Amino acid sequence: MNVFAHVEGLIKTALESLQADGELPAEIDLASIEAEAPRDKGHGDLATNAALVLAKKAKMKPRDIAEKLKDRIEANAEIEKADVAGPGFLNLTFRPEFWQAIVLSIIDAADAYGRADLGGGAKMNVEYVSANPTGPMHVGHCRGAVFGDALARLLEFAGYDVTREYYINDAGGQIDVLARSAFLRYRQALGENICEIPEGLYPGDYLKPVGAALAKQYGEALTEMDEAQWMPVVRVKAIEMMMAMIREDLAALNINHNVFFSEASLQADGRERIGEAIESLKEKGLIYQGVLPKPKGHDDGEWEEREQTLFRSTEFGDDVDRAIAKSDGSYTYFAGDIGYHYDKLQRGFTHLINVFGADHIGYIKRMKSAVTALSDGKADFDIKVCQLVKLFRAGQPVRMSKRAGTFVTLRDVVDEVGRDPVRFMMLYRKNDASLDFDFAKVTEQSKDNPVFYVQYAHARSCSVFRNALEAFDGLDTSADALRAADLSKLTDEGELELIKLLAAFPRLVEGAARAHEPHRLAFYLYEVASALHAQWARGNDSPQLRFIAQGDVGLTVARLAMIAATRQVISSGLDLLGVEAPDTMR
RNA sequence: GGCCCCGUAGCUCAGCUGGAUAGAGCAGAUGACUUCUAAUCAUCAGGUCCGAGGUUCGAAUCCUCGCGGGGUCGCCA
């Protein structure tokens, strides 16, 4: 059950009954009325702004409306009291039974607790990572990868039919560079002394296995060919091996895409996706031949006027129109992206999300323009930007340079600090704020490190169950036994606080899914963990508050039910972040 | 110069799409381990929400103009 939605329902019903009785004008719209958790505990469990929102439309004083509403609301058996407060808030306090029942509903729902139907099964495409297949992924890719994956999990939980997609940039000039670099390694593998890797080629050792594989497969045959002949062969092999490496890196982070979409495939095997997409834009009058103005802020003298094929992205709020063909007539990268998104739309996706790195911010407007144009504004398209990750080691920034070989790969980070801490820390920040990542802090196992803090709360919940079995010989802790618990024994303020927090989970999932902000889950889980640790510690001072109540099986089982509900929320939440919920911390 | 992010406690950051007296963690001070793993908890202290206008019952949040930091800017990908 979503408590907030439930209460909003109660409020609307009450308002409608006021309208029916002529106490409120019948014609006013009740849409923007909300229930929310007040910051201050003195303001009840939930508050509604109904009277404030309606006052103007109804031409009545807010407090007068609130008073009328109060009487109707208090008729509900679940409500202990309703108070008119401040400028016209109505603060609702529920009877303990209401909260106690939440525990039962969580145990009943199990894994499904918090699941939402925002999406209604709509097809959602989440594209993330999409790193060039020219080498191993570095740390910068890590954040987008984790973010995209968590977002996909969240949206699935919120009722979308999600496809996780990776766009392979395997058609551009950098792939030829990759192939030439691999070819050099191939000659090296055949025993040739290649000296230094020339400027402009990829120097990394990771291409040596590609050279070796080519040597094994083709022997010296490729050396007999000229570049035009060996190029396609080497290119395919290099991309295949680079992608295999990238997939392995992603798997180390527990990230698995459903679709790896090749840029080259847009124009291969008889497909003409780019042409079709451009044709469709042409029909809308959005393609023309023209000259772009000189960009400002750059005063290299190399700029010259050129006539190009342009997309009228300024129609949709972009600063300038964008080129889709180079002067030699071939397509630009942007044209490929237009074709790619056209393809996504053709595949029936009504919702699209792209996760970009900070360096692609300037690309957002043209991409949105293109999707708006292609879908006639019908597609729901969002681009999420992950800002930079700054690495620190013991407080000092880590300098990275490809040339000096001090380049930190994604794999290095995962191997050093572990999958769970990496994932959690990447999500423990808004995506559009830059993030400082300190190796020392992330590996620390203390409350300074939110990953361990939350995982420890889960492990602690599990340990309570283990200890309960020792304290009460033959105790039945099955879900059925917990369902039968006498929850009215859960009357401590701390216990009710914890349950109220658990009750907020469904609303939180909805909000995070709607805003495309998985970080909210991470912060929420921290709060739940904190409430659990606090309640645990109260048992140190007040033994009667211990989860395992000496000699009182009934009370113990009731508390175990509450712990089970807490554990459920933490494990569901961690699962949405792709982080393990361990039974024990050792 | 254009565009996009960011600016909240000494530090690192939340703030649920406009709610009531702005919250956490770290750092600082004080206290709690013969325990249900103290890998934790409690209390105190800490604020010009960058600035100035505007919108309204109500602004850290929305709009405008500034200031500061970062990113990016015609055929690369």
Kindly list the characteristics that best describe this protein.
single chain; 5-stranded parallel beta sheet; 15 strands; 4-stranded antiparallel beta sheet; alpha/beta; RNA-binding; Rossmann fold; Gyrase A, domain 2; 586 residues; 4 domains
Description of the molecule:
Helix content is 48%, strand content 12%. The protein is an alpha/beta fold and 586 residues long. It has 4 domains: 3-94, Arginyl tRNA synthetase N-terminal domain (Gyrase A, domain 2, 2-Layer Sandwich); 128-139 and 162-256 and 387-443, Rossmann fold; 272-385, Rossmann fold, CATH 3.40.50.620; 450-577, Isoleucyl-tRNA Synthetase, Domain 1 (Orthogonal Bundle). The chain has a 5-stranded parallel β-sheet with strand order 7-6-5-11-12, sandwiched between helices. Strands 1-2-4-3 form a 4-stranded antiparallel β-sheet. A 3-stranded antiparallel β-sheet has the order 8-9-10. Strand 5, helix 5 and strand 6 (161-168) form a beta-alpha-beta unit. Helix 4 crosses helix 17, helix 17 packs parallel to helix 20 (553-577) and helix 19 runs antiparallel to helix 20 (553-577). The chain binds one RNA strand of 77 nucleotides through helix 2, strand 10, helix 10, helix 15 and helix 18.
